[in-house]
Design goal:
- With about 600 residues, this protein is of the alpha+beta class.
- The protein folds into three domains: about 200 residues, Phosphoenolpyruvate Carboxykinase, domain 1 (3-Layer(aba) Sandwich); about 270 residues, Phosphoenolpyruvate Carboxykinase, domain 3, CATH 3.90.228.20; about 80 residues, Beta Complex (Phosphoenolpyruvate Carboxykinase, domain 2), CATH 2.170.8.10.
- It is built from 16 helices and 30 strands.
- Strands 11, 12, 13, 14, 15, 16, 24, 25 and 28 form a nine-stranded mixed sheet that branches. Strands 1, 4, 5, 6, 7, 8, 9 and 10 form an eight-stranded mixed sheet that branches.
- A hairpin with an 8-residue loop joins strand 5 and strand 6.
- Helix 2 packs antiparallel against helix 5, helix 11 runs antiparallel to helix 12 and helix 11 packs across helix 16.
- It is globular, with a radius of gyration of 24 Å.
Length: about 600
């Protein structure tokens, strides 16, 4: 198949790779993407014609679309996600491993003829601000128009990335197919995927990605978790930087002093809400650099600088409302793609938690009729929105800063009903690394498995670390030795409950009170006291809040000793790859409690 690259790229190595993949996948047509609005509109129109997209009411949500996936393709498939290093030990006990050569042979078999009857789209994209030394380039080949539309929102896609590729800049090759070839008279599904055969494959040593059988965002938008975390984390280890599952937020106090923070929480634990927080305390301002991923390098001045490699938000819709996250709701007023939420009769969208009362009738996320008396939810719990970050009313002006923003504080957290207090601070970087390594959280709907079950999720990176997690802890410890200007580290838990199951803390906008204490700790103006687990506030502003302070900051020694036992058992899986610094901190915690 002849491909006309004129006016697209002069990079002969890239051209050869595309030709090779076209011969393998055997598509009917090839479309070289330019990332333009015209291309997006035409692709979205194509999806409306096929029934895959429904255009939403232009008076209510201009430029927006609704779609629903196959019920077998609604979340990341962690059990089908592989890290293929030459040596199994380098993949580590928390990842699924296959031999890279065997896996490549298997993928070549799957991809052979997989795009018959379809269009092969070639997507050049940049993760991070164009021209930043912290950014990385990728080229994704896909047969999914849904991916094309979402990648335009989520990455800096098209012409500017192509200019860098023309100069011979390195890129990460990303192969994706829904895995459903079409014979001449086959009727296509509105969401083609393979219920039985999904493979999300990473080759960190080669810096390459292969994804087959799924159209869902976390498995199919390969710039996101696959490149920006799994491949980038391995590259970051090799090159001495950090690729993290973290939001980035700018916080300005009433005196006009601004500090930047990163925060790591497992999916669906309030990251987007914190990234766009609307403070309840007058004079404080929050601005969003990113809501999901941070790439951080030590700058010339010894401080840690972060960029958001993404240009959009692929957020969980259920629970997002004008009460919980007004900035997100404003961001979502136009030009958004909604996946697996409910559709109203007047072509708007609705999801659980959006309004106190649901509409009288909806089309549910499976495409069926729904009323408030229906036994199932109208939206899938992991229903998503894709929307440009540039529509966010609290977007930080430094979002495209090529140097990144200087990070003063790092926050870890999870969803814990008991044991873990509202907030505490690490004594130093090594202790902070241990706190990150020992994060555990109740499971949510963003990953397959039993919701509510407690799982260890170090640094909120469990599903995203592209190499042995014991080595990853070691990499964090090494980073701390590179500079004496590293950020302060904190841990929060917004989800503590009393014995009746009620939340101890109001959360949302009130979380600014906790951020204020952290901010003032960095400024040297807030007090804390030593406890066996770290430093807790003695000067948190709780004015006009009716909360049980004792319950919020209780350190139950018996519960914590059980926690130590659980952490010790978990850390045992890393064997001799568990760094000495982490073992030492666990011993200190146990000794403090006893």
């Amino acid at each position: 198949m002849d491909i006309d690259f004129s006016g697209w790229t002069t990079n002969t190595q890239l051209q050869a790779w595309i030709k090779e993949q076209a011969q393998l996948c055997k598509p009917d047509k090839i479309h070289l993407c330019d990332g333009s609005k015209k291309e997006f509109d035409e692709t979205a129109q194509l999806m409306c014609q096929s029934g895959a997209f429904v255009a939403l009411n232009p008076d209510k949500r201009p430029g927006s679309f609704w779609c629903h996936s196959d019920p077998s393709d609604v979340a990341r498939v962690e059990d089908r996600t592989f890290i293929c290093c030459k040596n199994e030990i380098d993949s580590g006990p928390t990842n699924h491993w296959r031999d890279p050569e065997e896996m490549k042979a298997h993928m070549l078999q799957l991809f052979n003829g997989c795009m018959q009857g379809r269009t092969m789209y070639v997507i050049p994209f940049c993760m991070g601000p164009i021209g930043s030394e912290l950014s990385l380039l990728g080229v994704q080949i896909t047969d999914s128009p849904y991916v094309v539309c979402n990648m335009r929102i989520m990455t800096r896609m098209g012409e500017k990335a192509l200019k860098l590729l023309d100069k011979g800049a390195p890129y990460i090759p990303c192969m994706h197919s829904v895995g459903v070839p079409l014979k001449p008279n086959d009727k296509d599904s509105s969401w083609p995927c393979r219920e039985d055969e999904k493979w999300i494959v990473h080759l960190p040593e080669e810096r390459a990605i292969w994804s087959f059988g799924s159209g869902y965002g976390g498995n199919a938008l390969l710039g996101k978790k696959c490149l920006a975390l799994r491949i980038a984390s391995a590259q970051a280890r090799d090159e001495g930087w950090l690729a993290e599952h973290m939001l980035i937020v700018g916080i300005t106090n009433p005196e006009g002093v601004k500090r930047y923070f990163c925060a790591a929480f497992p999916s669906a634990c309030g990251k987007t809400n914190l990234a766009m927080l609307k403070p309840t305390v007058p004079g404080w301002k929050i601005e969003t650099v990113g809501d999901d991923i941070a790439w951080m390098r030590i700058g010339k001045d010894g401080r840690l600088y972060a960029i958001n490699p993404e240009s959009g938000y692929f957020g969980v819709a259920p629970g997002t409302s004008w009460d919980s996250n007004p900035s997100a709701m404003e961001t979502l007023s136009k030009n958004a793609i909604y996946t697996n939420v409910a559709l109203t009769d007047d072509k708007d969208v609705w999801w659980e938690g959006m309004t106190p009362e649901p509409p009288a009738h909806l089309t549910d996320w499976k495409g069926g009729d729904w009323t408030p008396s229906s036994s199932e939810k109208a939206s899938h719990p992991n229903a998503r929105f894709t929307v440009s970050a540039y529509q966010c009313p609290v977007l930080d002006p430094a979002m495209d800063e090529v140097e990144g923003v200087p990070i003063s504080g790092i926050i870890f957290g999870g969803r814990r009903a008991s044991t873990v207090p509202l907030v505490f601070e690490a004594r130093d970087w090594e202790h902070g690394t241990f706190i990150g390594a020992s994060v555990s959280s109740e499971k949510t709907a963003a990953a397959a498995g039993k919701v509510g079950e407690l799982r260890h999720d170090p640094f909120a990176m469990l599903p995203f670390c592209g190499y042995n997690m014991g080595d990853y802890f070691g990499h964090w410890l090494k980073m701390g030795k590179k500079s004496d200007k590293m950020p302060r580290i904190f841990h929060v838990n917004w989800f503590g409950k009393d014995k009746d199951g009620n939340f101890l803390w109001p959360g949302f906008g009130e979380n600014i009170r906790v951020l204020e204490w952290m901010f003032n700790r960095i400024e040297g103006t807030a007090e804390a006291k030593e406890t066996p687990i770290g430093l807790v506030p003695t000067s948190l502003d709780l004015q006009n809040l009716d909360v049980d302070t004792d319950a919020l900051f209780e350190i139950d020694k018996e519960a914590w000793l059980k926690e130590v036992k659980s952490i010790r058992e978990y850390f045992a899986i890393f064997g001799d790859r568990l760094p000495e610094g982490i073992k030492k901190q666990l011993d200190i915690l146990e000794a403090n409690l006893k």
